[in-house]
């Protein structure tokens, strides 16, 4: 059973955060909060999963909030079912952001993987169990391609891409595209330095 609280002002929110209440998840409407308040909340409640809902989400603002420790950033007008899906995903350990924001985050996180993929040099213990096709798909995810784009590029169905990704997530113990992309980029970086 979950306890829920509602704050209508930034001051109400600060009071809740100061109390001895531990929050597992906070959904906050962007007009209610600023960057300093996000930093304050994360400092007071480091294990809290913080989701910001913005009326006008932007990649720049999303990246800034992610750097502060926010793990969900979405449009305030997201339909209720999609918001429930987001909450479930976040509670399960994933990040919830738009495809465009994820692509931008992935491309800014580390050097490109694809040239390394061609040589198979990125095989690490976490990636060793992947088939060549799974590694190829993981590489394309690390480049920010959507399932549909991967399907077109490889000449397979989107359903097949999803099946391969499910296997990749299980074999690498990653939860979602961002974690997989970061793993691939870490492996590429390690192979380039080794």
From TrEMBL:
Q: Name one GO molecular function term.
A: DNA binding
Q: Which residues form the HTH luxR-type domain?
A: 123-188
Supply the Pfam families for this chain: GerE
Please, which domain of life does this record's source organism belong to?
Bacteria
Q: What is the name attached to this protein's record?
A: Response regulator transcription factor
Which terms under GO biological process does the entry name?
regulation of DNA-templated transcription
Q: Which organism is it from?
A: Desulfobulbus oligotrophicus
What does the UniProt keyword field contain? DNA-binding
């Amino acid at each position: 059973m979950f306890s829920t609280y509602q704050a209508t002002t930034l001051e109400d929110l600060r009071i809740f955060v100061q109390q001895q209440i531990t929050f597992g998840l906070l959904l906050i409407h962007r007009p209610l909060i600023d960057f300093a308040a996000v930093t304050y909340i994360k400092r007071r409640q480091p294990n809290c999963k913080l989701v910001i809902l913005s009326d006008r989400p932007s990649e720049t603002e999303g990246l800034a909030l992610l750097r502060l420790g926010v793990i969900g950033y979405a449009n305030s007008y997201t339909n209720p079912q999609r918001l429930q899906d987001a909450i479930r995903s976040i509670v399960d350990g994933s990040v919830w952001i738009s495809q465009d924001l994820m692509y931008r985050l992935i491309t800014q996180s580390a050097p490109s993987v694809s040239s390394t993929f061609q040589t198979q040099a990125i095989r690490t213990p976490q990636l060793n169990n992947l088939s060549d096709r799974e590694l190829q798909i993981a590489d394309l995810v690390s480049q920010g391609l959507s399932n549909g784009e991967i399907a077109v590029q490889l000449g397979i169905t989107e359903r097949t891409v999803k099946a391969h990704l499910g296997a990749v997530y299980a074999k690498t113990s990653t939860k979602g595209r961002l974690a997989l992309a970061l793993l691939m980029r870490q492996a590429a970086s390690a192979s380039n330095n080794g």
